[in-house]
Design goal:
2 strands, mainly alpha, about 130 residues, two-stranded antiparallel ribbon
């Protein structure tokens, strides 16, 4: 099941990123609303499949606390993967210009978005399972 979940999370993440970057371009007054992502992002988003078995342990915890746990996990994996990709000069994102960045690979002000993403992944992953 992890293989299917990995594919679902990878595709969902790609779609979320395209929608997010499209909205960002609109905020910059670009009505073309061009969104973008990278092939590198598929396995990074795919790793959100870990939420499914994690949910089995966390399901009795309040939603906001679970979302906070997912946020910390996402930040941790974003940092590790970003530093790895940056070391090899292939990191598709650079947050160096953001005030709340850490080493240019995570933005702390994105915490609410990552919380929402984690809870969305949870919803998608556990909806068809009897957990």
């Amino acid at each position: 099941m992890i293989g299917k979940d990995f594919l679902v999370c990878g595709l969902t993440g790609w779609c979320m990123e395209i929608l997010f970057t499209s909205a960002g371009s609109l905020l910059k007054h670009d009505r073309r609303m061009i969104g973008q992502t990278s092939l590198w992002m598929f396995p990074i988003y795919g790793m959100a499949a870990i939420i499914s078995p994690l949910y089995k342990v966390l399901r009795k915890i309040p939603t906001l606390l679970r979302g906070g746990i997912y946020t910390v996990g996402i930040f941790s994996f974003e940092y590790l993967s970003g530093m790895f990709l940056k070391k090899h000069h292939v990191c598709p994102w650079d947050y160096s210009d953001a005030k709340s960045n850490i080493n240019g690979v995570i933005r702390l002000d994105y915490a609410p978005f990552w919380m929402a993403a984690g809870l969305l992944f949870e919803r998608i992953l556990v909806r068809d399972k009897n957990i």
